[in-house]
């Protein structure tokens, strides 16, 4: 062991975000400036480019959105209420799956073979082997 | 340019999507560069050198042996 680092993943690649949602079989809508709705069916101020409608989260949730920032990255829009409920659980699943695809894509582009290791608890493990 | 030493990078992706990476098989300053490509995926919140990082002498002699110079 020689060097350890921890990285908070940022969602920067729309195609990989879509891939993550598809892997998890979470239905979503994709488009420019889509409106977000609250759990009363009320239209929210925020808009997003990728949206998981609340009916796919639970009846008391708001829509979960991914809004494209001027930098090209995405920020997740989740209500404060949903941050400790099913909405957050879904967001974390998406983040993990996205991170998986991002690591695999980046590693392959840099000449690594990616070996899947047995998952540990809820964590995914990969071994990157230089070709 | 020096050849890239043989190494592996162990990656764990937590339940919240955080990436933890450990470079294996290389000591010294080089190993920090080896996992630098992962920095582009987000914000580095922790970056540590473990004890092996400082064992440069050992790796130099091992490299000499394996490369046959």
Word description of this protein:
The complex is a heterodimer of chains A (131) and B (69). By secondary structure, chain A is of the alpha+beta class. Chain A has one domain. Helix content of chain A is 26%, strand content 40%. Chain A has two helices and seven strands; from the N terminus they run βαββββαββ. The two termini of chain A are 20 Å apart. In chain B, strand 1 (8-13) and strand 2 form a beta hairpin. Chain B has 69 residues and is an alpha+beta fold. Chain B has one domain (8-67). Chain B has helices at residues 30-34, 56-67; strands at residues 8-13, 19-24, 42-49. Chain B has a two-stranded antiparallel sheet with strand order 1-2. Chain B is elongated.
- Major β-sheet annotation of chain A: 4 strands, antiparallel
How many separate domains make up the residues of chain B? 1
Report strand % of chain A: 35-45%
> Major β-sheet of chain B, in short?
2 strands, antiparallel
Instruction: Please bin the fraction of helical residues of chain B.
Output: 10-25%
Q: Give the CA-CA distance, first to last residue of chain B.
A: 17 Å
Total strands of chain A:
7
The outline of chain A comes out as: elongated
What's the gyration radius of chain B in Å? 14 Å
Based on DSSP secondary structure assignment, what is the total number of beta strands of chain B? 3
In one word, what is the shape of chain B? elongated
Largest interface: A-B, 37 and 44 residues
Give the helix tally of chain A. 2
- Give the low-pLDDT segments of chain A: none
Report Rg of chain A. 16 Å
For this structure, the quaternary state is heterodimer
Mean pLDDT of chain A: 93
Which bin fits the share of residues in helices of chain A?
Answer: 25-40%
Succession of helices and strands of chain B: EEHEH
Spatial strand sequence of the major β-sheet of chain B: 1-2
